[in-house]
């Protein structure tokens, strides 16, 4: 009962929504007024949503049915078109037969007339009985520069005609090497551009029994041509182009994936071209069908003539005759093999790459371990041409000119089919080229923000996510293939990392960001790079090698800034205690020194807000420890000596200033204050720098130890004039 009510309510709701005067706003207003609360609205919303899903399913079903009907209709149209062509050819043949009847009667009438004339004349009057057809056999020129080869039935005559004509065409002597080839038809044509219908050039067409040769005119050499193109007839389609004045008397030749349009001199020559092309194609197809049937038909054992039936055989010759070795035949008469080239063309046109490769695998499996007689070689030649076309389409699918959306998975279809075709190396190259273009486009489209660190976060996310997805897709697509592909991927990853570092350095180092900002950016890049270790790809050494020059420049630049600032403070040094004025300022300084690693700073503070150290020494301590912390974020082994030498240069500036002031100062109180600052510098700051460097690097620094040991000169003999340098 409830189900029936539900179905009736749904049908009523459907009729209401499908009515012509339906207004959504008025419907919602009435529904809100009639509902008892939120629950009714939720139930009604669910009914509408269910109705929408049902409608969507019905729409999909209808689209699928219409699509199937469209395919069936297209197939029927194709069949109808084929039948119409056959009917047209039958009518043409009938017309030709009817036209040839008077010609067959003409010789008989001429012979009868000649006999009558000879009976009525006397003494050599037979000269008037001349054969009217004498001299007309052979090569008949047709109007408009077109001609059909109607030489005698002998193959030598056809070959001589072909040789005579092709001697006028440069670069096509190889055509004469094909046995059984002869000229069927030839004539002058004008080629037009297929897109803009602009005249391109004058050409001459030579139609052989198995191919069509197109040659271009040589203006400077009258009657001579240059080879332009050669098309096999079994891969050639002829289309009649409807007259559209002034463009008329044209026909199109389709050779996948290209096409060419030619114009004949008049309508008659155009009709002759169309007819003779179709006739020659049909004759070639019939000839090859017969050859395949003969090759597939089993042959009985050869009959050996008995000795009694051969009266010329030597009776004393008892040597046994060598048995004839019969060549094994391959059955190619099956329907799927006969239709294989056409099925491949259809699959390629419909972008059914998997179906095309399945057909090729089926053929290869069938012909495996079988001999290769001429019919099989001919079939393989046709199939190889389709394989070349399929490969070109798959290569175009992976070209960077195509849309790069969809990520690496969008290339899987084309890559997998290229691998199945045995083009693993080409698939790897095209896949990596496609992904390089995608990464480059993603980086270029990334908007540069005002904050450098924010941009670097986005840059690292985009690049390393793309690299990770590419690596996983590569591993999926090329699993089980040649290991050389993995080497190509590593080379590609290094190249892609160079692209990333270029964008990274341009934003971080070329814009002269502070060392702290540069250190944070490099830290972010390292963290993202380490994520590649999850798939076994470690590119940390690559990013180090690419960034080492820029980081060296940043360290050198910041070192010079610290040295200049320290020298400037030293020039204004008065050797006075610091007065921070407020307890808050003193507490803040204590926290800063504690964060720098100076844990015993309390012993250098005095009463109220006084600090028993010079402002220069305190500022130097904070700046040096800050430089060390930021430099350790940038550290990797290639930067060890650069960082160590920079630290030594910075410390020597302060050490030399304290040493000089201690030797030159005459006031005992100031001298004692300088000695206290020197003690803080040597006994507190330098050990902290040395310890922090060893923690960050993992090994002690002998240069820093030597620098600290040299400070004993000052502590042992403060009056000495010996320099620490």
From TrEMBL:
Keywords: Cell projection, Cytoplasm, Exocytosis, Protein transport, Transport. One of its GO terms (molecular function) is phosphatidylinositol binding. Signal peptide: none annotated. Residues 120-129 have a biased composition (Gly residues). The gene is EXOC8. This is Exocyst complex component 8. Residues 137-146 have a biased composition (Low complexity). It is found in: Cell projection, Growth cone; Cytoplasm, Perinuclear region. Component of the exocyst complex involved in the docking of exocytic vesicles with fusion sites on the plasma membrane. The keyword Kinase does not apply. InterPro entries: Cullin_repeat-like_dom_sf (IPR016159), Exo84 (IPR033961), Exo84_C (IPR032403), Exo84_C_1 (IPR042561), Exo84_C_2 (IPR042560), PH-like_dom_sf (IPR011993), PH_domain (IPR001849).
């Amino acid at each position: 009962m409830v189900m029936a009510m539900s179905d009736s309510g749904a049908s009523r709701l459907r009729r209401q929504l499908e009515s012509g005067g339906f207004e959504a706003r008025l419907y919602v207003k009435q529904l809100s007024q009639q509902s008892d609360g939120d629950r009714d609205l939720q139930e009604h919303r669910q009914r509408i949503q269910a109705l929408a899903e049902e409608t969507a399913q019905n729409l999909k079903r209808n689209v699928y049915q219409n699509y199937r009907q469209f395919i069936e209709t297209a197939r029927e149209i194709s069949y109808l078109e084929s039948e119409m062509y056959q009917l047209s050819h039958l009518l043409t043949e009938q017309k030709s037969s009817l036209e040839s009847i008077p010609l067959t009667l003409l010789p008989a009438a001429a012979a009868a007339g000649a006999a009558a004339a000879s009976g009525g004349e006397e003494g050599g009057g037979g000269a008037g009985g001349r054969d009217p057809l004498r001299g007309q056999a052979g090569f008949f020129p047709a109007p408009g520069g077109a001609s059909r080869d109607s030489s005698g039935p002998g193959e030598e005559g056809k070959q001589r005609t072909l040789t005579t004509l092709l001697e006028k065409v440069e670069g096509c002597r190889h055509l004469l090497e094909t046995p059984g080839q002869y000229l069927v038809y030839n004539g002058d044509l004008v080629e037009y551009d297929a897109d803009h219908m602009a005249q391109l050039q004058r050409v001459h067409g030579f139609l052989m029994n198995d191919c069509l040769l197109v040659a271009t005119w040589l203006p400077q050499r009258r009657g001579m041509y240059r080879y332009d193109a050669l098309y096999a007839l079994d891969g050639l389609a002829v289309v009649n182009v409807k007259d559209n004045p002034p463009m008329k008397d044209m026909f199109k030749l389709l050779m996948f994936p290209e096409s060419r349009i030619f114009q004949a001199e008049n309508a008659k020559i155009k009709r002759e071209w169309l007819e003779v092309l179709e006739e020659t194609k049909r004759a070639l197809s019939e000839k090859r069908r017969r050859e395949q049937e003969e090759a597939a038909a089993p042959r009985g054992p050869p009959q050996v003539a008995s000795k009694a039936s051969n009266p010329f055989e030597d009776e004393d010759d008892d040597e046994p005759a060598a048995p004839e070795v019969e060549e094994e035949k391959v059955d190619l008469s099956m329907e799927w093999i006969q239709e294989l080239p056409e099925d491949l063309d259809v699959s390629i046109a419909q972008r059914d790459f998997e179906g095309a490769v399945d057909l090729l695998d089926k053929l290869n499996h069938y012909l495996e371990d079988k001999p290769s007689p001429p019919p099989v070689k001919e079939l393989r030649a046709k199939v190889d041409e389709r394989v070349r076309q399929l490969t070109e389409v798959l290569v175009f699918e992976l070209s960077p000119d195509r849309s790069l959306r969809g990520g690496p998975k969008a290339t899987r279809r084309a890559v997998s089919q290229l691998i199945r075709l045995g083009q693993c190396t080409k698939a790897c190259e095209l896949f990596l080229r496609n992904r390089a273009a995608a990464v480059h486009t993603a980086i270029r489209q990334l908007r540069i923000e005002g904050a450098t660190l924010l941009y670097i976060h986005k840059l690292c996310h985009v690049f390393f996510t793309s690299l990770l997805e590419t690596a996983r897709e590569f591993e999926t697509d090329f699993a089980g293939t040649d290991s050389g592909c993995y080497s190509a991927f590593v080379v590609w990853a290094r190249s892609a990392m160079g692209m990333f570092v270029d964008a990274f350095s341009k934003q971080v180092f070329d814009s002269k960001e502070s060392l702290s900002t540069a250190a944070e950016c490099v830290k972010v890049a390292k963290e993202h790079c380490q994520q590649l270790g999850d798939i076994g790809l470690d590119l940390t050494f690559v990013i180090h090698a690419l960034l080492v020059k820029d980081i060296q420049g940043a360290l050198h630049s910041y070192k010079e800034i610290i040295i200049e600032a320290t020298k400037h403070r030293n020039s204004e040094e008065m050797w006075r205690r610091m007065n921070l004025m407020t307890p808050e300022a003193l507490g803040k300084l204590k926290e800063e020194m504690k964060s720098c690693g100076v844990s015993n700073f309390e012993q250098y503070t005095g009463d109220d807000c006084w600090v028993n150290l010079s402002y220069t020494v305190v500022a130097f301590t904070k700046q040096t420890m800050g430089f060390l912390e930021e430099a350790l974020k940038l550290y990797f082994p290639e930067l060890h000596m650069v960082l160590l030498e920079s630290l030594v240069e910075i410390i020597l500036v302060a050490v030399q200033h304290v040493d000089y002031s201690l030797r030159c100062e005459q006031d005992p109180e100031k001298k004692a204050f300088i000695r206290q600052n020197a003690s803080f510098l040597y006994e507190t700051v330098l050990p902290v720098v040395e310890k922090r460097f060893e923690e960050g690097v993992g090994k002690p620094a002998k240069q820093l130890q030597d620098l600290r040991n040299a400070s004993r000169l000052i502590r042992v003999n403060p009056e000495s004039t010996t320099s620490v340098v």
